[in-house]
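User: I'm writing a short report section on ligand binding and want a predicted complex to refer to. Could you take this sequence and magnesium ion and write out the structure as tokens? A short remark afterwards would be nice.
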Amino acid sequence: MTAIDKYLNDFCIGRDVDNIEDMWQNVYVSSYWRNSGVLNNAISGLDQALWDIKGKRAGMPVYQLLGGKSRFAVQCYTHAGGRSNEEVIADVQKYMAMGYQHIRIQLGAYGGVGTLGNNPPFREAGFGMETDDFMDQRAYLNSVPKMFAAVRKACGEKVELLHDIHERVEPLDAIGLIKRLEEYNPFFIEDPFSPENMEWFKQLRMTTSVPIAMGELFNNINEFKMPMVNQWFDFIRVHISQIGGITPAMKIARLGEWFNVRTAWHGPGDVSPVGHAANCHIDLAVWNFGIQEAVRFSEKLQTIFTGCPTMNKDYMSVNEVPGLGVDINEKEAAKYPIGTKSRWQVRKSDGTVIRP
Ligand code: MG
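Assistant: Sure. The structure tokens for the complex follow:
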């Protein structure tokens, strides 16, 4: 908010609202040092607003400005989870009954955090914050193939299964885990390595043919340009506001087209409906769309954000009005002030921070 109110407002005065590319290039280098996560998100707010305005001026939904539809709607996957294999199976069956064909399965939270072993020595020693979580990496590595086996046995071969490692194990352990998952034919495995460990993709690709999705932590083209060109992963999963909006996301999608890297934009519940709409407009337009992380907006949220994308079974559609299709009712939004959220950290048993 500070970056927008105290910096971008002044930056925008006197510039031509029609020239999105020029505006983006200018703001991208305006602070000389670039690719900060915070400024990229602020730039994305500006960029998505400019695409929305251009759509409204043209009288077209944004996907029309991006080239028109390559598909009738956007196929999505959803999240299933539980604290035991039985709970995961029940959740998968619930979503299959709703029409989902692609389902991400997690035991507990990401990486079994908080589920597998609850009383770590660091907590007893009073190390870290009370809100910090414990992850038993070895227990996690052993549990995931068993979860896949149980879900395949109960739910059959037809449902597509996905899993997010969330980077929280040693690179070679992640490779070993993915190899063990081969027999369950996953649709993709997500985030095997932290961004500091990108070179390990070479080893991963030589070891297994399981499709890989990567990239929600990327901020900067240099983190993923050569990995995409080298085909180190199959799905690029950047968080669109984190890289600066629709303008750079379209370039990433086009780069991927020539290297058979498909899009799977990051779309968790804490992306705003405007962000989900931006994802969905791109998903409709680009040829190399892979899959989209689904979200169902609560009725309360829809009183604030009118015109949210809608789900029909596992397909997402945008509101077909000009622009991005989502408007914000600021009066309604003011009823829900942004709270402060305690920082959440994951640690090993001795208290060492585990990098996502
Ligand atoms: Mg992830």
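A remark for your report: The CA atoms of residues 56 and 322 lie 5 Å apart. The pocket of magnesium ion is lined by residues 164, 166, 190-191, 216 (CB under 6 Å).
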